[in-house]
Amino acid sequence: MAVHVRTRAELDKQRRTRSHRCWDHLLIAALWPMHGDNLGTLLRTCDAVGACLVVPPFRWVDEALARGNTLRKASCVHRTGDPLGWLEKQRATARVIGVELADEAVRLADLPSARERTVVVLGHEATGIPAEALPLLHQCVEIPMIGTGHSLNVAVAGSLVAYRLSGML
């Protein structure tokens, strides 16, 4: 059996013709970023799954997003200068899930697709989600690993969880 690789024209016919408007259904919140390159990757993933990206309003973050936006189209990016206050407000209207190694964390494979407004909280790559933010989470999800590393980088972890919650994985 021959393998048919779809052309760009075929792919374009089955995808959105323009960037999504803010659906506000799935938000990927990189509230304590460490590396700008990861933000560009997360922005690309958010476009792929129809999610919005939430970041702090730092100049270096905006520059990283501009550099990393390989789509060259406007993407849905929200900014917050008060991560804890923003999370507290989101908790009232959304399911807030932290990607964190916690005793009560659900394995990624067991995480159901988002059926309600959902916020995915990603921590700092070196220190994780700050302790004062943990009580604002409804649930934690962990990504099991066999190797010697303690965690995946924030772009990879955020992308895996975004795909899982979007129902595309």
Automatic annotation (TrEMBL):
Pfam families in UniProt: SpoU_methylase
Residue ranges of domain tRNA/rRNA methyltransferase SpoU type in the record: 33-163
InterPro entries assigned to the protein according to its UniProt record, in alphabetical order: Alpha/beta_knot_MTases, rRNA_Methyltransferase, SpoU_MeTrfase, tRNA_m1G_MTases_N
GO biological process: methylation; RNA processing
Keywords assigned: Methyltransferase, Transferase
A GO MF label: RNA binding
Species whose genome carries this gene: Lentzea tibetensis
Protein name listed in UniProt: RNA methyltransferase
